[in-house]
Amino acid sequence: MDHSASLAQPLNLRPEFAPGQPREDGPSGGASPGAMSAGARHFAWMLAATPLAGAHRYRYLLLLRFGLINLIGLGLLALAQVHGWVTLTLSADHTHLVAVIFLVFLAGLGACGYRIAQTSRELNRARPFNPLIPSLAAQFLAKTRGRSGESRSILVSALRLKLTQRIAVIRHTANSLVLLGLIGTVIGFIIALSGVDPDKAGDFNAVAPMVSTLIEGMSTALYTTLVGAVLNVWLMVNYHLLAGGTVKLITALVELGEEHAGP
């Protein structure tokens, strides 16, 4: 069967009519200007829905970026484990402060992921906006509708403070990683100097224990500082991603509020 001939024929969007059924044709047998068949209406609806489908193309983009960033971070962590650096770091720290720093990092990363998922969901509900779906955009519109410009500005400032304060805990957690690393540095130096006895410096048998204690303290100081700094950078990258998404959400809500503010 030759399909090329059938494909070359024009698409007939006009429905079939039963015998005796009145046709909506003009005097010359063509379609009247105001008449449109069911197929043509469906085709027009598809064309009108195409831009809306394109608007959903980038849904949950913020969450996808979060996953990509942390996938790269986990890959680098796995590479460090392959070379034995992770095991060496944990075994060299006898105070277990490195493990504490890593647990604090995991708590901050989990909180950041939760906030990013919330922000990404609210962005999707604000663009495009559907008043039938409960969202932060719907709540903001309900507060700003019918208000004056000055009153809307106050509500926008309150919204900005609320959303900014909601993500501030992530930044504080990232900063605490550096502080924990510095605390580990101080503890390491205390351990290193606690084993040094100037009175026994000339005793050959006492030098070996002093050197061992010195190395243990310096290992604690250096490894805790390194882990705290690296995990701080990792968490701050996620925080800046969350802060950028929060700014986009505030902008979308303000634009939506001004669009539906009314006279």
Describe what you observe in this structure.
The chain has 263 residues and is mainly α. It folds into 2 domains: 13-57, no CATH class; 59-259, no CATH class. Helix content is 74%, strand content 0%. Helix 5 packs parallel to helix 8 (204-259), helix 6 (136-144) packs across helix 8 (204-259) and helix 7 (149-194) packs antiparallel against helix 8 (204-259). It is elongated. Mean pLDDT is 79; it is low at 1-36 and 41-56.
Q: List segments where confidence is low: pLDDT < 50 over at least 5 consecutive residues.
A: 1-36, 41-56
- What is the residue-averaged pLDDT? 79
**For the terminal residues, how far apart are their CA atoms?**
64 Å
Number of helices: 8
Structural topology:
Layout: H1 3-8, H2 38-55, H3 61-82, H4 85-92, H5 97-126, H6 136-144, H7 149-194, H8 204-259
Keywords summarizing the entry:
263 residues, 74% helix, mainly alpha, disordered N terminus
Please give a quick description of this structure:
The protein has 263 residues and is mostly helical. The chain has eight helices and no strands.
